[in-house]
Design a protein that fits this description.
Number of helices: 11
Bound molecules: 5'-O-[(R)-(carboxyoxy)(hydroxy)phosphoryl]adenosine, zinc ion
Structural class: alpha/beta
Order of helices and strands: HHEHEHEEEHHEHHEHEHH
CATH architecture of the largest domain: 2-Layer Sandwich
CATH topology of the largest domain: Nucleotidyltransferase, domain 5
Largest sheet: 6 strands, mixed
CATH class of the largest domain: Alpha Beta
Number of domains: 2
Strand content: 5-15%
CATH superfamily of the largest domain: ATPase, nucleotide binding domain
Length: about 325
């Protein structure tokens, strides 16, 4: 079967509302919801793609097998195994981070390697050197919280709903980014490494200080100041990674790359050398997994039906 790499359907079933009442992702709830929606969503995607009779018409099943939450990975991997068996087609396990890298291949046709990919999401903050498609080197990562996790925790401190990133982004637009002088984490270390837990604590202390004086918390100013510092921390280390590796082309991926200040700052710093997918490809999506899976399959063949989910699957 030939593959043209065109995206025929990429559907998403968001659980954000289910988890919002708990202020964060509840793993057990996530896997239950996954198994509830996976078949209806699959049917809708096949129908949208015009593949109502899959056997003989689906050439490959690609599935995320890690990293991620075990329960959710299990639902995906077991379903994919069943489909591959029934449809008599090959199966390929995809690393979630490789998927994020491939969001850029879908969004920017013909983009060339090498490039640096900054993956910033609720679970990841990583700078990866993409030497070639399938050949990766980890340049640096967070020592503690992920950038998105930090946005979410700061939002929680301020009493904003989950997920906090979009709320902080929205409120920051009307705040003064210089009103609070939070320290830029890791700004003086010579390595490409991130840390976001201290920044979150700095925000917490500032808010507690204001609350203890029974003054009104200037939410927009705190959002704007925190966001400025978080973006500075990310951009500073990407500049360092670019200098260390000699690679000037930069790609972004992951939910936090939807942040308006981040997009603006990277555009100003790297100009035509920065590539940012549209928001629906930055956040988790099926098309990026299919694209990474197809490329890996064409390079090195299928995984086989014996793949297992691996919550901490390494990219390199
Ligand atoms: O990649 P993603 O959709 O899911 C995973 O974490 O895998 O990323 C979600 C994260 C959340 O932490 C959310 O708050 C953050 O991305 N996020 C943002 C924005 N939109 C989403 N953070 C900052 N600014 C945004 N506009
Ligand atoms: Zn992700």
């Amino acid at each position: 079967m030939g593959f043209d790499g065109r995206v025929r359907s990429s559907l998403l079933s968001s659980q954000v509302k289910d988890h919002a009442v708990f202020g964060g992702v509840v793993p057990e709830l996530a896997s239950r919801k996954h198994q509830e929606v996976i078949i209806p969503l699959l049917r809708a995607a096949l129908s949208e793609a015009g593949v109502d009779e899959p056997p003989g018409r689906v050439g490959l099943v690609a599935v995320t097998n890690g990293p991620g939450l075990m329960g959710s990975l299990l639902v995906g991997v077991m379903t994919a195994k069943g489909l591959a068996q029934t449809w008599e087609c090959p199966l390929i396990g995809v690393n979630h981070l490789e998927g994020h890298i491939f969001a850029n291949r879908i969004a920017h046709e013909g983009i060339e390697t090498p490039f640096l990919c900054l993956i910033v999401s609720g679970g990841h903050t990583e700078v990866i050197l993409v030497k070639d498609w399938g050949a990766y080197e980890m340049v640096g990562r967070t020592r503690d919280d992920a950038a998105g996790e930090c946005f979410d925790k700061v939002a929680k401190i301020l009493g904003l709903p989950y997920p906090g990133g979009p709320e902080v982004d929205r409120l920051a637009a009307s705040g003064d980014p210089k009103s609070f002088d939070f320290p830029v984490p890791m700004s003086s270390t010579p390595e490409v490494e991130f840390s976001f837990s201290g920044l979150k604590t700095a925000v917490l202390w500032a808010v507690n200080r204001i609350r203890s004086k029974e003054e009104e918390v200037p939410v927009a100013d705190i959002c704007a100041s925190f966001q400025r510092v978080a973006v500075e921390a990310l951009i500073g280390k990407v500049v360092l990674a670019s200098e260390m590796t000699g690679v000037g082309r930069i790609c972004l991926s992951g939910g936090v790359s939807a942040n308006s200040a981040l997009r603006r700052a990277f555009g100003e710093r790297f100009g035509g050398n920065v590539f940012i997918p549209p928001i629906e490809l930055c956040t988790d999506n099926a098309a990026m997994i299919a694209s990474a899976g197809l490329d890996r399959f064409l390079r090195s063949g299928p995984s086989g039906l014996d793949i297992s989910p691996d919550p901490s699957a390494p990219l390199t």
